[in-house]
Design brief:
Residues 1-51 are annotated as: Disordered. This protein is of the alpha/beta class and 188 residues long. 39% of the residues lie in helices and 14% in strands. Helix 3 (65-68) links the parallel strand 1 (58-63) and strand 2.
């Protein structure tokens, strides 16, 4: 397995900046961009192919019931968003493996860590998450990955300790990947 690129990690990337940065890179790489000027006398009109006009960055969200309630129409008009429900990391891995997307998504958001922490150790969760990230990177090398960190719960203090532990391990582990950003959901 090839080593993944290293990242100089100075701050968390803004979600919309990641999407818009990816869009700018993809537009510049398009070798068959064609503009046609109509034969009429109004030379101010330039028609672009529909594929270029409607091309917005594609964001995929794979996550728990928390993400299923998101209304993607209100996230942003600057990118298109598709959601997939995956309650645990195993479901997330299966979803990523089964997705057949063309063109590749610009950003994939993963929010499945919280539920998996109930049945797995923090170390095991990080290992499973790393496998998902590497599968994603292998499948779509230009795609950015946003990992939504585990969220605390009011019902159990011991569980919250596990949440803080796994979040620290995820921060430490994924600092080395330049295509991974973290979304911190801590309300403290």
């Amino acid at each position: 397995m090839q080593p993944l690129p290293q990242r100089s990690y100075d701050s968390y990337d803004n979600f919309q900046n990641v999407a818009s940065t990816s869009k700018a890179k993809d537009v510049n790489k398009s070798p068959n961009k064609v503009e046609t000027i109509p034969k009429n006398k109004n030379l101010d009109t330039v028609n672009k192919p529909k594929s270029d006009v409607n091309q917005k960055p594609k964001v995929i969200i794979v996550g728990t019931s928390n993400t299923s309630r998101l209304n993607t129409n209100f996230l942003s008009k600057n990118f298109t968003t598709t959601k997939y429900t995956a309650f645990h990391l195993e479901d997330t891995a299966k979803t990523i493996e089964e997705l057949k997307l063309s063109p590749a998504p610009n950003v994939i958001v993963l929010h499945s860590l919280t539920n998996s922490l109930k049945d797995n150790s923090a170390d095991n969760c990080v290992t499973k998450l790393d496998n998902i990230v590497q599968t994603t990177n292998k499948k779509w090398p230009s795609c950015k990955v946003v990992i939504s960190l585990a969220t605390v719960r009011k019902d159990k203090d011991t569980y919250n300790n596990q949440v803080h532990l796994v979040n620290a391990l995820v921060r430490n582990h994924f600092i080395k990947y330049n295509f991974v950003s973290l979304c911190d959901n801590d309300n403290y």
